[in-house]
Amino acid sequence: MKKLLAALALTTATLAGGAAQAEGYPDRPIMMMVSYGAGGATDFQARIVTMTAGNDDALGVPIAIINKPGAGGRVGWNWLATQAEADGYTLGAYNVPHFIAQSIQGGVQYDADSFEPIANWGADPAVFVVKADSEFNSMQDVIDFAKENPGKFTYSGAGLFVGHHIAALQIEKAADVKMAYIPNNAGGAGAMKAVIGGDVMGGVNNLSDAFRAAEAGNIKILGVADLERSEFLPDVPTMKEQGLDVDDASVNFRGVMVPKGTPQEAIDKLAALVPEMFKNDRIAKKMKDGGSPMKVMNREEVQAMWAKRQETLKELLAGL
Amino acid sequence: MEFIYYFGDVFAPMSFMLLLIGTVGGLILGATPGLSPTMAVALLIPFTFQLEAAQGLILLGAAYTSTVAGGAVSAILLKIPGAPANIATTLDGHEMARRGKGARALQLSFLASAVGGVIGVLLLIFLTPVLSQWALAFGPSHLFWLAILGVTIIGSLESRSVVKGLLSGCIGMWLATIGFDDIMGAQRFIFHPALGGGVNIIAALIGIFAIPQVLNMFAKGRNDPNVEVIHVQKSPLREAVVELFSKSRALVIGTVTGSFIGLIPGVGGQIAGLVAYDQSRKMSSTPEKFGTGHSEGVIAAEAANNAMVGPSLVPLLTLSIPGSPTAAVLLGGLLIHGIFPGSDLFDNYPDVAWTFINSMLVGQILMCIFGLYVAGLAARVAQVPQSVMAAIVLGLAVYGSYSVQSSMGDVYVMASLGIMMFFLEKFGYSAAPLVLGLILGPIAEANFIQGTMIADAGDGRMGYFFTGTLNIVLIAIVVLSVAYSAFMELRARRQMQQTEALA
Asked: Which residue(s) pair with A294 in the sheet?
């Protein structure tokens, strides 16, 4: 209870703090907004990668996680873009392609220019899954079925304008087939349940969740929507290897950003320290134990990645 | 019987201390409006970083079981359900507290929780493989019919008027459409940024139940400061135990309904208490007493929502699918220690898995002991003067709705829904059907849309929604439930006419 109270007090202190002092930054705890619920993959990873923030070789001050879930992340990112204080003490976790795709779709108060990237910590590719006892054993089987039965192959994913949906669009476009994408309202877990329960014939899901489900013998993984095979699944071929022109546009990149207007000194300091913090051995071990693929990228690399995504997604979503 | 072998681990000094902390802390957190079991478990996860896997899970398991039971405290004493699971408890529990029987209501609720909870965990221990198949059997069409079954309960939930019950349910369902639509991402009725994420269910619960209470208390307090001084009756534990077992029908219905509905991913936990309450009223010999401070209502609701705890973890532990928001948080707690749930969990990590389950079993008992210990003291809350009470409840309501996601937006939602409900109650509409509409709306809608999309790709909508054993069974229960409500309504009306004719 005491620890809990201390954590609460810390959070309150973070919220109540005033404007930033550039020199000596950071001199008080930092808050990081996660736009998904507590316990979800993004929240869970955010808590792991920030757990060493208080160490002297990292930021020297702890990072407290605040969840602002809702509407597939839109609530939290709207808040970060319009209401959060750009003082260097308010960070946000990003999910690419989600927030970029949402800003292209419209109806939100942010786009890629509303935020300044700091560093990337993880990359979770989308994979194509079917139930363990399914007749489909490769992407080719699925495509063949879809060619013969246009629009009849049902497959689940975590909603519209998220990585799963992007992968689905890319697969259908690459194979020039029509299939029935069924967006799920309960996220990746709900979409996975639909596959295991036999509600749909297949699905697009996160590599990390699919890896666990495959280990448990519930599903088969037919392909990875990334440029290279994953170290978690060395035997599963990529989409490209199976003749489908699908790149890494659907890979779910997770990292840290700040709202536009944050003092340049704070951005520079964070951009220098945060990627190093992510490389900590303890973090790497916890992430690996949790089945979460890591990919540390610095500010310049993330800027380039955002710009590239922006372009690909605009083209892909233009037809919708 | 393997679980008995690992019982010793629960009673190791460090583990048992964590179990105590989890249980007592969970009761306190659960009794605080706005801190749902999901939140409480999520708050505790960072502390398990420093612990060993088994010890961390003991803390989480104990906290999960006792927050669910702790929610009954505020439901009974303040008429603020701590989580959707406790809505049904307010219906009779708070009436009992108003009659000075708060201590008895709390005792019964903790005893019923313990009985239901222990049986639920035992089901988890012995029947997991069978149950996991049952949990998977529910596809979109079945979940849609299940939600419709919930809607039929709306009409009969508050006995005064079926039409007004259904109307409140419709208002709730409309409120549920606010926000970005879950599946398509379309914006609906977002006229204020605070509504972007939709109406938060916990904030709505607090507003709808607590604010009318507060306003009524202020209104009464002004007229007469000494109004309604409640004499809190003492309640010997022995009598409470005797009462619990004399109402064994409600206890059995609550436990059975809670266990089976709790299994169904995505639906179970939220409506288990209400379905059990409704069923035990329909099967009771004295259905008219429900809603007037009848102990059967408290027993059925609390037995059900704790019976749900064990089975709700079946899909998580065997299939790695979190069936409820709390299970999703627990999944995070497992993963952080490198433990992947799945069918081989019990082979790979028997010590962790069994210690976790045992801790929930022991946690249920500890929770009951602590609950009974504080019941007598807690019931004295009813003696606090109305004006003071109103201020405290108002403070808790604001604090609780803010803390859900640290957002003032939820406080505005809580306040405006609360004021709306105050006026609706003046016209005879009640809160429980409205909240049930709010909970069931998204379930029915999302599953209907997914179902139609799957059906359109396959064998057509008629075939998808109306064939298959499970669909037909669910439709039959829906029809029976409606017919029963109509029959009761007609009978009540005829009796009224007869009494009028006699007079």
From this structure: A122
ipTM of this complex prediction, to 2 decimal places: 0.82
Are the CB atoms for B279 and B331 separated by under 8 Å?
no
The answer to whether B347 touches B128, Cβ cutoff 8 Å, is no
Q: Do B340 and A184 touch (CB under 8 A)?
A: no
Q: Tell me the sheet residues that pair with A149.
A: none
Kindly report the nearest CA distance between residue A161 and chain B, in angstroms. 8
**In this predicted model, which residue has the larger pLDDT, A16 or B281?**
B281
Query: Using one digit for the tens of pLDDT, what is the confidence trace for B100-153?
Result: 888 899 999 999 999 999 999 999 888 887 777 777 888 899 989 988 888 888
Judge whether A131 and A269 are in contact, CB under 8 Å: no
Of the candidates B468, B285, B264, which has an alpha carbon nearest to the alpha carbon of residue A190?
B264
Note the pLDDT tens digit of each residue in B33-64: 777 888 788 778 778 877 888 888 889 889 98
Please give the domain boundaries of chain A with CATH numbers for all domains.
2-124+251-317 (3.40.190.150), 126-242 (3.40.190.10)
Contacts of B331 in chain A (CB under 8 A): 39
Interchain contact, A159 vs B446, CB within 8 Å: no
Whether the CB of A123 is below 8 Å from some CB of chain B: the reply is: no
Nearest-by-CA chain A residue for B460? A152
* Residue among A184, A189, A289 minimizing CB distance to B338: A289
Quote the pLDDT of residue A23. 59
A154-157 and A202-206 beta bridge pairing: parallel
Distance of CA A53 to the CA centre of its chain: 21
- Best mutation target, A10, A15, A44, A149, to test chain B (most B CBs within 10 A): A44
Name the one residue in this structure whose structure tokens are 């007229």. Answer: B223
For the whole model, what pTM was predicted? 0.85
Listed residue (A187, A183, A210, A287) closest to B323, CA to CA: A187
**Inter-chain contact B47–A69, Cβ cutoff 8 Å?**
no
Q: Å from A105 to nearest chain B CA?
A: 9
Q: Which of B320, B336, B407 sits opposite A286 (nearest CB)?
A: B336
Say which of A38, A43, A159 has its CB closest to residue B183: A159
Q: Are A116 and A258 in contact (CB under 8 A)?
A: yes
